[in-house]
Amino acid sequence: MRIVVIGSVAAGTSAAAKARRNDESAEIVIYEKDRDISYSGCGLPYYIGGVVKERAKLTPRDEAFFKQRYNIDVFTGHSVADIDTASKTLSIVNMATGEQFEDRYDKLLIATGAHPIMPPIPGIDKPNVFPLRNVAHADAINEFIQQKQPRHAVIIGGGFIGLEMAENLVHRGIAVDLADMAPQVMTPLDPDMAIYVQQYLERNGVKLYLGHAVEELLGDEEVDTVRLAGGIEIETDMVIMAIGIRPEVELAKRAGIALGPTGAIAVDTRMQTNVPDIYAAGDCAEAFSVINGKPLYRPLGSTANKMGRIAGDQMTGGDLEFRGILGTGIFKTFDMAVAQTGLSEKEAKAQGYDVVVCHNIKYDHADYYPDSAEMVIKAVADKTTHKILGAQIVGPRGVDKRIDVFVTAITFGAKAEDLFHLDLAYAPPFSTAKDPVMYTGMILE
Ligand code: FAD
After folding, report:
1. Which Gene Ontology molecular function entries are recorded, alphabetically (predicted)?
2. Residue 358 is a catalytic residue
3. Is 345 helix (H, G, I), strand (E, B) or coil?
């Protein structure tokens, strides 16, 4: 059996490794159009900020590793140009030589990920305007900072990548202004939670321009001024574009593979597309909600790894199935952690739920024990069934633990009143006798 994988970051390599564990004799080949493989995209902002000092720690595996450890052939610098689903063949371009050749597959995994949105605004192609998606982008940002010593940056986009970059550029001594066309940062959060993040960013010196779309990037050779809607002009030395990503689906579309309503590749719980023997996983593929089964596109490394493993298992006769996602995410900006799982209040209402909502401000551990700090929890439950639908948490400490308790509770269909009865661990350095999650349940019930 010949398994071919297109794309070799989180989903592709996870699938290939699982396929090899299941099947020692299959031929497994990966084509990757870029130069880096199996890297941690999630670590890139911290590499730019100097928190992660060694680039090699983010790119720990290369082609030789995959050959030696898994007997998998990885071809970097090779772009898959077309898939012929009838003959089960691929047309591939060696990007260094321009040579074009064919390969065949018995099972094919599309793990082509996503690409950053770069809207056609004037000036976007100037050399000091940077997206951040892969290692090459991070290298370009790093080189620019080293060579040009910028003193000021404008970040366009207040999502988690924009906010992680704000922290890391400030670490490098660069003053940051951040603009977003939305009236708040982190649009998946409810505005009454985003406000905490906004106030915190401003306290850390990040100037926010919310509700202002970028109109033009002005300058001769390089951008020196960012013009926003409303006639605002900001002088700057560099621009980071972080307005979001789109699933990389052109190749799949050309091959007649169906997309779902979110625009990503539609897959079933076995990661199979509508075309026999073709699977899709990771940021190019559509997930569905654990809460209501609706299609959901929240492209994250956690999900890409999981989907990849399931695809690898399925391509080799396994029975692992995808159970959906809650869209759980966490990130930090400066010392503040921001986490979310399930439905926000606005999402739940838009989906027709009659909701009950609670806000709760509690210490992460006993207030008399050193370094305790308050966190804000907002939780949403269904008024009729009492089932917890989602939670958002902002705070400097203990946020990761609480959000994962909510994730577990929602996944197993817990009701608001169940939270109080959880036998959560307590000692003063770690929690309070009634944990913040338990309090949330007491308020919601
Ligand atoms: P990708 O990483 O996009 O990889 C797809 C690969 O396919 C690419 O290398 C591409 O070159 C290749 N490819 C595409 N088309 C072709 C073709 N035709 N032929 C050959 N190769 C092709 N997620 C989290 O869960 N937590 C985090 O904290 C987090 N932080 C992040 C921070 C940053 C700055 C970024 C950029 C992402 C972050 N993510 C995070 C998201 C995470 O990195 C992605 O979800 C993950 O990389 C998706 O993996 P993937 O394999 O599906 O796709």
Report:
1. oxidoreductase activity
2. no
3. helix
Helix H or strand E segment including 346: helix 345-350
Specify the pLDDT at position 444: 85
Choose which residue among 18, 29, 33, 62 to substitute to test ligand 1 binding: the one with the highest number of ligand atoms within 8 A of its C-beta: 33
Range 285-305 average pLDDT: 97
CA of 12 to the centre of ligand 1 (A): 10
Ligand 1 contact, 12 CB (< 6 A): yes
Let me know: does 230 contact 216? Beta carbons within 8 Å: no
Does residue 226 contact residue 154 with C-beta atoms inside 8 Å? yes
CA of 289 to the centre of ligand 1 (A): 21
Q: With a 6 A CB cut-off, is 327 part of the ligand 1 pocket?
A: no
CA 358 to CA 391: how far, in whole Å? 10
ipTM: 0.99
- Which candidate, 350, 353, 330, places its Cα nearest to that of 405? 330
Residue 243 carries which DSSP code?
Answer: S
Write down the pTM of the prediction.
Answer: 0.97
**Residues found in the chain:** 445
Tokens representing 27 are 């031929």
CA distance 241 to 232: 18
